[in-house]
Design a protein that fits this description.
Length: 425
């Protein structure tokens, strides 16, 4: 594959796919990993994460051949014209399969698709995955934040992300209204006057592959439960159907002693249901109630799988319970490919000031290592971050919420984590 404006590092080897369906990759000792540092604070946290991840790889006997690729403002600077997502970047992530990115500023302007959405959709990263777990020493509004240890799987390609909507005042929106009223019989449902209309597609294909991914993750990581979160009491044929298709996956595609599809009556009769020991239980809950249970019965939840919009709300709410944006990691999973990225955006006001907290991007790298099967390196990253924060050495965003903490700049905090990697390995 040709790259026009970026170099493929000579010393590394590409990660090859062994079995796409089962996410099986062959990881060389020095894999080529594309990295986008990102816009705004990406310029601070991108290089910081790169250093920490490299230190953890080295400490566990490996190396990484980083391939710098560009998107957002940095792509515009390098490639010129109106290029914000160059083919080089898409092709590198496509070819090398495992990649990490910092936040990107979405250029403001009519018709500009979010670069993040474009990247996720072009390369079919259909599951947005966010682990939410407590790190000792992080300030939290909860009484027992340590009870939180969840991973959310949010569908990434349909529901509101399909982007099918029509603007008020257009000929198209009136055509859709006429069709829905005259042809589909909803003639008394919509008020007269200006209207906006959107369509919420939820397919069997999209729902099942997302739930399958969540169940496989639960099995691989020795988790107890997968909760399907939906609003099927109101949106029966979309959200409700998502849940039914998800339950079908649990029921039909795995042996009962591995994955147990809980019946609807589970809530009332929990004690009487015989759940096979060691099986991952798959249950379903309504999204509104779930936001409440997540706070009141935090320790009961484990892996959550849901359509796009529910996932948007729920994963941010979960993140807030354990310390918020500066530390919340994420990744996008496709078939045998991953693009790790922090949850936060480019926070332009803090950019280039050696202030931003790189933890979210570092922990996104931890998730990437975990995906690659580099469990020891992943654990080392997690332990070194926790050791640093629990010793009271933190960036400004955490320092202002803690008593007696020492405020470090991005670079000094990064050095501290690297020193802890060396100490702990
Ligand atoms: P944001 O996440 O960039 O910032 C919100 C606030 O959170 C900031 O003011 C800052 O105080 C704080 N914050 C976020 N990350 C932090 C960190 N690592 N360290 C310390 N403080 C941190 O959200 P926004 O202001 O809504 O968005 C800014 C830009 O980022 C927009 O262009 C938006 O489109 C983009 N964005 C990108 C992504 C992504 O690339 N995945 C995600 C969200 C937003």
């Amino acid at each position: 594959m040709q790259f026009d404006n970026v170099d493929v590092p000579e010393q590394g080897e590409p990660i090859e796919v062994v079995d796409e369906e089962n996410d099986e990759l062959d990881i060389p000792e020095t894999p080529i990993i594309p990295i986008i540092h990102g816009d705004g604070i990406g310029k601070d946290v991108g290089p910081a994460a790169q250093k920490v991840l490299e230190a953890a790889a080295n400490a566990t006997g490996r190396d990484i051949a980083w391939m710098r690729v560009y998107a957002g403002e940095s792509a515009h600077e390098r490639y010129g014209e109106d290029i914000h997502l160059p083919d080089d970047t898409v092709n590198a992530i496509d070819k090398f399969r495992v990649a990490i990115k910092g936040p990107l500023t979405t250029p403001v302007g009519a018709g500009f698709r979010s670069l993040n959405v474009a990247l996720r959709q072009t390369l079919d990263f259909y599951a947005n995955v966010r682990p939410t777990y407590y790190l000792d020493g992080v300030p939290s509004p909860m009484k027992a934040p340590e009870e939180m240890d969840m991973v959310t799987f949010r569908e990434n390609t349909e529901d509101v992300y399909a982007g099918i909507e029509w603007e008020e005042g257009t000929e198209e929106v009136e055509q859709v209204r006429d069709f829905v009223e005259d042809e589909m019989g909803f003639d008394e449902t919509m008020h007269d006057g200006p209207i906006g209309i959107g369509i919420k597609p939820i397919t069997e294909f999209g729902s099942k592959r997302l739930v399958r991914k969540a169940i496989d993750y639960a099995l691989e990581h020795d988790r107890d439960k997968v909760t399907l979160v939906h609003k099927g009491n109101i949106m029966k044929f979309t959200e409700g159907q998502f849940s039914e298709w998800g339950m079908e996956v649990a029921d039909e595609e795995y042996p009962d002693d591995e994955v147990f599809a809980a019946p609807d009556s589970l809530w009332e009769t929990q004690d009487e249901i015989d759940i096979p020991e060691d099986a991952v239980m798959v249950e379903e809950r309504l999204a509104d109630a779930m936001l409440q249970w997540m706070q009141l019965r935090t320790d009961e939840f484990d892996i959550m799988a849901m359509p796009n919009l529910n996932g948007d709300y729920l994963s941010d709410a979960a993140g807030a319970q354990i310390g918020g944006l500066g530390i919340a990691p994420g990744a996008n999973f496709g078939d045998a490919r991953v693009l790790a990225e922090p949850v936060h955006g480019s926070a332009p006001k803090r950019a280039g000031q050696n202030m931003a907290n790189p933890t979210a991007m570092i922990l996104s790298g931890r998730l990437m290592f975990d995906y690659m099967g580099w469990k020891d390196a992943a654990d080392l990253v997690g332990e070194a971050v926790e050791e640093t924060i629990s010793s009271g050495k933190v960036t400004y965003d955490l320092e202002r919420q803690l008593e007696d903490a020492e405020k470090l700049g991005t670079d000094e905090y990064t050095e501290e984590i690297i020193a802890n990697i060396e100490k702990l390995s």
